[in-house]
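Weekly modeling sync, notes
Attendees: S.R. (lead), two postdocs, one rotation student

Agenda item 3: backlog of single-chain predictions. S.R. asked that every request posted to the team notebook include the full sequence so nobody has to chase files. The rotation student volunteered to paste the first one in as an example of the format we agreed on. Action items at the bottom.

Example entry:
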Amino acid sequence: MANEQRQRSLAPTSRVDDTEVAASPTGGPDDGLLVAGVAVPRLPPELRAQLAERRLAVVSGGDALRRLSILAVVLVASTTIAVLVNHPITWVLHAVVAGVVLTSLIAAEHEALHGSMFDAPWANHVVGAVCGALCLTPYSAYRTYHLKHHQNTHVVDDVEPIVVVRSRGGLIGALLFATVGLAAVLWARLAASLFGRGFAGERRFRRRSIDALTAVVSIGFLVVLAVLAARWGIGFVALLVGAPLLVFNVLSAATFFPEHYECAYGPDIAWNTTRTTRTNSLTRFVLWNANLHTAHHLVPAVPCHALPELQGLISERCIHTESGYLSYYRGLWGRIGRGELPPAPPWKD
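Predicted structure, as returned to the notebook:
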């Protein structure tokens, strides 16, 4: 029964957690989806039929647990080795390994906020809150922020900043500070939500219980860091947590940036406004297949383990694709140097 309820993109109307997903019962050429009550550009009828036949919107708690278990084992092992050996080389390795794990945890947080990990909404929220705390990106604020992004992707009301990078220095700055900026925005939004104000246009996504859970877990993590600093010194905490966060800051920004940059402005269907980056199996695992971003934006109800299959169904329609992240940035570096910049958003003309 639970799996049937999770076939979210296929039922005429259903409600999963706090995100409403509905589809027109007509099945005709104007068939479309409502994600969080917001219309998504219509899907071709044959694609809708394949989604239903292949049951691509069914979550897999087992897959999520396997991924989370691997990340937990790697993070604990890295931390243990670094602390016990206490050598500069092991601390450097810890910064890199833990930074990669944190990059995967924010992708896990993203999966959780879409309700795509487990059948039970509370399980998604708990996992999302823990992942968000470790990444210093509070879950409930990220949830409302990101659902609003899906509501207005690459348009004037998109909460994600839409900028045109005009220099190579600007690109480096964007990659260095984008995640820091996101964290600052999310903490401000969490504070606003806790004090009852929130942000206009996002109140429909807010749940006070999720705000409270996020506050307890996120602030609790900061208290733990303060206790560790008092006991073993700020330098120890900087090596244990600060250095991995620096690595995470760059890696997460580098994977977020290509998702919509240089794509068409909306409102439009996902294969015009969103980029898919094909990459190696390790990177796909780390990102929870979020590199298949066109498929994700096209049908956000599809969990990460089914995104490769959905991407296979739409690959010929995708306009913005890249063979890998390094390939994308090599090309972007050259285009910026030649002054080949994407057009400014039409609403900024």
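Discussion: group reviewed the output briefly. The longest strand covers residues 19-23.
Action items: rotation student to repeat for the remaining queue; S.R. to check formatting next week.
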